[in-house]
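Good morning,

Attaching, inline, the backbone tokens for the sequence recovery test we're adding to the shared suite. The designed sequence is right after.
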């Protein structure tokens, strides 16, 4: 099984794509750490400076930014996510 600290999902509420990306990862049996920034303005600023993105969700594998829901879905379908997790 993968290391749950490898995948970090930054979310906010309400956020339908956040729920969808978590469902996508769970459906594949992947563990992840969720960081909910809905009530954390400082955390949002830190995430934006780290990733250059202001949208949610943001999915990171280790220190590598996958992106949001559509980018994560593409990474799952292409096998890129499995490659990142195996590295």
């Amino acid at each position: 099984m993968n290391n749950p600290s490898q995948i970090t999902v930054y979310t906010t509420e309400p956020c339908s794509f956040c729920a969808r990306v978590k469902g996508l990862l769970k459906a594949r049996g992947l563990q992840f750490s969720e960081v909910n920034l809905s009530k954390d303005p400082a955390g949002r600023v830190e995430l934006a400076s780290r990733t250059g993105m202001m949208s949610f969700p943001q999915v990171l594998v280790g220190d590598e930014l996958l992106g949001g829901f559509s980018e994560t879905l593409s990474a799952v379908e292409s096998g890129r996510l499995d490659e990142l997790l195996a590295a």
